[in-house]
Amino acid sequence: MPEKTKHDSQTTKSPHRHAPDWIILTIACLAQFMVVLDVSIVNVALPRMGRDLHFTVSSAQWVVNAYVLTFAGFLLLGGRAADIFGRRRVYMTGLFIFTMASIGAGFAATGTQMVAVRALQGLGGAILSPATLTIIVTTFHGPRMPKAIGAWSAVAGAGGAVGGLLGGILTGWFSWRWVFFINVPFGIVAAIVASMYLREMRNRDAAVKLDVTGAVLVTASLASIIYGVVNTTTKGWGSTTTLSWFIGGGIGLVAFLFWEANVASHPLVPFRIFKSRSLSSANIVMFLVGGAFFAMWYFLTFYFQYILHYGPVKAGFAFLPMAIAIIAGAQISSRLLVKTGARPILLTGAAIATLGFLWISLIRVDSSYWGSILVPAMMCAFAMGLLFSPLANTATAGVDRADAGLASGVLNTARQVGGSLALAILGTVAADRSATFMNPDSGLALVSGYQRAFEISALITLIALLASLAVPRGAGLAAKH
């Protein structure tokens, strides 16, 4: 009761009608599905999109990175906005920006237009995504929370795999432009249901001020570092150009930390939040596994199309078993969480992921989907489902409910930053490995690069397994009380 009283004193609610739990959960999960879907749905469409918009192989990565970078850089701002301005208002604002940017991406006529609109779409996602977890944390209490977070995590995890499936179907049967237009009906439905049933709730004591400077600094810094990594495919790691991007990004990050600690009156990242061991350890693990899993979808997409010579539709359907595995893992995880706590699940999930990546790193030019890809890929996907629910629960359980949006923003940022860095680094490592062959565009050279990327992914998840030992033993069990 004391916790509830404190929470009520810090929040204000609007007089919208009471809605059943499943409607509130659907509102949160539908928007989160849209946001996560757009990270992976473009992968299968990239070859055709690149031809139509005249992207080079290296510049095509920015269709993905423009979205992920702005998404990651402004997630913390979005999480704070949900606490300050209210979950309903921020949800609707993010949904509007995301949906309108999706329309713009579908009509993009040049590569420059596409990258610009994808960045705007990432901004909309950054506003929308933290609001979805805030809705869950402020709505569900006690033993209902792990189940709700489990459903949210299943949707978030499955979005990556379903993105490949849906992207392949839309590209093969219609046009790559429909990978963006598909967001419009989802956005309209989500907006109608949210306007009818979602009550406003915000932190009444929060100062109405956002740290835009901090968000710009961290986004520009990350973009500089990632651009430097991608640039190594043509300039080399030790070139003046590459080092300049790295140094600029490093200086920007130092400036961001100084601004947050000493200048910002209402910092984007109040460092006090990291006093929670649960939140800090969960973010480290999420940063690592998010990077490994994000890169997995990217490399499997190109393996399916360039090595196995699948068309977009067949490549899309190849991801279907993985989507099912993620959902199964998330449901199992949410049920075990209140019984075992988070740490045993995290250790198990990271171990399964490590074995899966090691197995899939054995692929060859003549490997088959059924004999060499399906089982290890499903292992990795199942592990993803196991991991995301306890990580979300652990990160949000250790903070005051008034900071739920901030905690969810930090966690999502860890996943997206890990994903964007991993994609840039592993993509560069794979390209460097392929370049050592006489014909770097041959199937043998490409597969050698993919092998190296999966080997490093296995190392990343192994480090995540060790990092999971820092998660408090009781994390997740508190949901029972």
Helix-strand layout with pairing:
Layout: H1 2-10, E1 11-13, H2 21-53, H3 61-85, H4 87-106, H5 111-139, H6 144-173, H7 178-181, H8 183-197, E2 201-203, H9 212-235, H10 240-263, H11 277-307, H12 312-317, H13 320-340, H14 342-360, H15 369-397, H16 404-435, H17 443-467
Antiparallel strand pairs: 1-2
Description:
There is one protein chain. With 481 residues, the protein is an all-alpha fold. It folds into 2 domains: 16-210 and 268-469, Growth Hormone, Chain: A (Up-down Bundle), CATH 1.20.1250; 211-267. 78% of the residues lie in helices and 1% in strands. The protein is built from 17 helices and 2 strands. It has helices spanning 2-10, 21-53, 61-85, 87-106, 111-139, 144-173, 178-181, 183-197, 212-235, 240-263, 277-307, 312-317, 320-340, 342-360, 369-397, 404-435, 443-467, and strands at 11-13, 201-203. Helix 11 runs antiparallel to helix 17. The radius of gyration is 21 Å and the shape is globular. The termini are close together. Mean pLDDT is 79; it is low at 1-17.
Residue fraction in strands? under 5%
CATH 2nd-level architecture of the largest domain: Up-down Bundle
Unreliable spans are 1-17
- Apparent shape: globular
Counted by DSSP, the helix tally is 17
Q: Helix-strand pattern, N to C? A: HEHHHHHHHEHHHHHHHHH
Distance between the termini: 11 Å
Assembly type of the shown chains? single chain
How much helical structure, as a percent, in the residues?
A: over 70%
- CATH homology-level superfamily of the largest domain: MFS general substrate transporter like domains
Residue-averaged pLDDT, rounded?
A: 79
Strand order of the largest sheet: 1-2
CATH fold-level label of the largest domain:
Growth Hormone, Chain: A
Please outline the major beta sheet: 2 strands, antiparallel
